[in-house]
């Protein structure tokens, strides 16, 4: 299962922030200088206005944040279990359908109608089970995304304050931000803080 909700949310957020940034500097972008190597998170504009920026690689983040990995593994186990159960129920329905086909010629009209009605009922139950499980997994996926964003936000608030950052973008396979200088990547610091906080919570349990 993918982290689509995380990517979409963070991607849209980055797009909105980037739009504001470009609008503020639409007449200045042609004169921007290269990032200051001694302070890689600072981008200096020619008119003397400077902005400190950074980005988070969310693909790397979700794969290295241990708490999130554990929750996602549990969700994936549940998803595979649901797939197997749905496959089993579908197989039983298919077998019942084939049996009815074989017996149809020997059944009276009333018996055939009753058998068809029962088969249709089983089909509706199968569809209802599939939809119910899909909704349950979707809800758990949304809750997992919510927890990740809450944890991420708590860390970003501190890093933004410590480094006096003006903009923090997200970068992943689905984001608007396609390329970036690795000097602006604060993902390792975020992952370290998230995992440290997770270990402290585990120690208190």
CATH superfamily: Skp domain
Supply the CATH class.
Alpha Beta
Helix content estimate: 55-70%
Task: Tell me the structural class.
Answer: mainly alpha
- According to CATH, what is the topology? Protein Binding, DinI Protein, Chain A
Tell me the number of strands.
Answer: 3
Can you put this structure into words, describing what you see?
The protein is mainly alpha-helical and 205 residues long. It has helices at 4-24, 58-64, 66-103, 109-163, 187-204; strands spanning 42-44, 50-57, 167-171. Helices cover 68% and strands 8% of the residues. The protein has a three-stranded mixed sheet. A hairpin with a 5-residue loop joins β1 and β2. The chain is elongated, with a radius of gyration of 27 Å.
Please outline what is shown here:
The chain has 205 residues and is mostly helical. The chain has helices spanning 4-24, 58-64, 66-103, 109-163, 187-204, and strands at 42-44, 50-57, 167-171.
């Amino acid at each position: 299962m993918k982290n689509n909700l995380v990517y979409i949310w963070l991607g849209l957020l980055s797009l909105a922030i980037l739009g504001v940034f470009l609008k503020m500097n639409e007449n200045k972008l042609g004169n921007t200088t290269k990032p200051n190597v001694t302070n890689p998170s600072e981008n200096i504009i020619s008119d003397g206005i400077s902005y400190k920026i950074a980005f988070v690689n969310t693909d790397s983040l979700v794969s290295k944040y241990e708490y999130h990995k554990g929750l996602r593994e549990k969700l994936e186990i549940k998803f595979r279990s649901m797939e197997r159960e749905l496959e089993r129920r579908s197989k039983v329905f298919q077998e019942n359908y084939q049996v009815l086909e074989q017996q149809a010629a020997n059944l009276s009209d009333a018996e055939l109608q009753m058998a068809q009605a029962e088969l249709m009922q089983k089909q509706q139950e199968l569809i209802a089970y599939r939809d119910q499980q899909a909704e349950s997994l979707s809800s758990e996926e949304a809750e997992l995304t919510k927890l990740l964003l809450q944890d991420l936000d708590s860390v970003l608030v501190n890093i933004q304050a410590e480094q006096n950052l003006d903009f923090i973008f997200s970068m992943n396979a689905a984001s608007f931000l396609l390329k970036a200088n690795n000097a602006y990547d604060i993902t390792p610091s975020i992952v370290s803080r998230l995992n440290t906080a997770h270990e402290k919570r585990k120690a208190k349990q």
